[in-house]
Each structure stands twice: as C-alpha cells, then as structure tokens.
Amino acid sequence: MNIVKENQNWVIKISEEEHINDSLLLQIKFKLLAEQWYDETKYFSFAKQIENETYFHILAMGKTIVPFIINELENGKNVWFNILKKLTHDNPIKQQNIGKPNLMANDWIEWAKTKNLLW
Length: 119
Hints:
This protein is mostly helical.
C-alpha cells in the first residue's frame, strides 16, 4: 500500500496482492491521520504538536497501531516517541540516546523486534 498526495487529494494505491481487510483499513486510517498530523504541525513546537486534534485521533486508535508507528520510525519519521510511551506504557530508550532522534528510533525498533511487532 502506498498513500500519496496528488493535487491536494490523498490517493491510496493498493497492489493486486494486497487484500482489503480490517488490518489494511486500520493502516490506511492511521497513515492518513499521520500524514494530516505531519502537515498540520510541521512548523509547530513539540508541545503544540501534541495539542493538535489529529494527534488525539491517532492516540485514540490504541495499541493496534504500534506496528504502524514503528514502521514510521523505520522510514525516518522520528516524531512518535511520546505516543509510543503512552500506547505501550514502556520506554526502551537508553539514557545515553536521549536527545538523539535516530538512536531513540533505533531503541524503539529494537524493542519492537523483541515483541514481534515488525511486519
């Protein structure tokens, strides 16, 4: 699945091998909300990003979106640490990696591997 913005509209491209099921629909909803949140908050401070209404819609999706968030980290979108802590009630970030987004993302990705959450 690929979601792209074309002429102010979101286009969802699904390959023939992918089957539309609840998991795919949840992933599409997450991805659309994530892209909306990125767009709405790209110039905001962290404090303002997590006050955004779309952020709360993402958070309300619950733990089932954790693999999607880990995928975002794998793709270099390192803005998900707070929501991961809220959803998982965990924080695998090593003390020496605090403030280093790429290393913090790696800590979460390693955590996800131990929990079999990678796709």
